[in-house]
């Protein structure tokens, strides 16, 4: 059975704004972006500080002009490594915001397209590769839950317009993701062999007549990827 899921390079965030309507709008934006996981919403910075005593997030999305503690005061209080997106109605605050680890600075009213562009800057800033290399697992969202998939269990990946199909042992998943974005989270033993296919080379059964056989499926090798693929395979010939 084919199941529609979302690939999750999870970016944990919290949202702080003393205006309930602004919180509602931004929360709606966050929920539209599969890579974002909203861990909490707060109407003042004190509540957020209490939360952050026991939890860590990749990004704090916060208003600047708030009673008691401003967004800038919150940033000064937290560790320098904490990343922020500042949101305000006052353009004159923009220059001062870059004293902190700011990913972006957004002016109210924030449109979804502009918000989405800010979020696109987050991944390289907060998800730096570890010394161990690519992760062993990825997460997908299903019925409001996060489900872990072992990357090694993926046999091959097929692109289908704005979706990709993950072929696993005994099952397959259709995910809202582009092939290029998927390549970024995969370890080196996955190779792009066609505009529509990425293969897990650990599961290749044989290669013949410009076709790769994986779990009985025939996957074409296109001219654009042939040399790089055979260079990789050549390194394993005995």
Number of domains: 2
Q: Count the strands?
A: 16
CATH class descriptor of the largest domain: Alpha Beta
The CATH topology annotation of the largest domain reads as Rossmann fold
Report the order of strands and helices. EEHEHEHEHEHHEEEEEHEEEEEH
Note the total helix count.
8
CATH superfamily of the largest domain: Response regulator
Rg? 22 Å
Question: How would you characterize the largest beta sheet?
Answer: 8 strands, mixed
Computed structural class:
alpha/beta
> What number is the mean pLDDT?
82
Distance between the termini: 40 Å
**Corresponding CATH architecture of the largest domain:** 3-Layer(aba) Sandwich
Q: Order the strands across the largest sheet as they lie in space.
A: 8-7-1-11-10-9-13-12
Fraction of residues in helices?
A: 25-40%
State which percent range the strand residues make up. 35-45%
User: In one word, what is the shape?
Assistant: elongated
Task: State the low-pLDDT regions, or none.
Answer: 127-132
Keyphrases for this structure?
238 residues; alpha/beta; 2 domains; 8 helices; elongated
Overview of the molecule:
- The chain has helices at 20-31, 45-52, 71-77, 94-97, 112-120, 122-126, 179-183, 223-234; strands at residues 3-8, 11-16, 36-42, 59-63, 83-88, 102-107, 137-142, 145-150, 154-160, 163-168, 171-176, 190-194, 197-200, 204-208, 211-214, 217-220.
- The chain is of the alpha/beta class.
- The chain has two domains: 10-126, Response regulator (Rossmann fold), CATH 3.40.50.2300; 137-234, Beta Barrel (OB fold (Dihydrolipoamide Acetyltransferase, E2P)), CATH 2.40.50.1020.
- Mean pLDDT is 82; it is low at 127-132.
- The strands form three sheets. It has an eight-stranded mixed sheet with strand order 8-7-1-11-10-9-13-12.
- Strand 5 (83-88), helix 4 and strand 6 form a beta-alpha-beta unit.
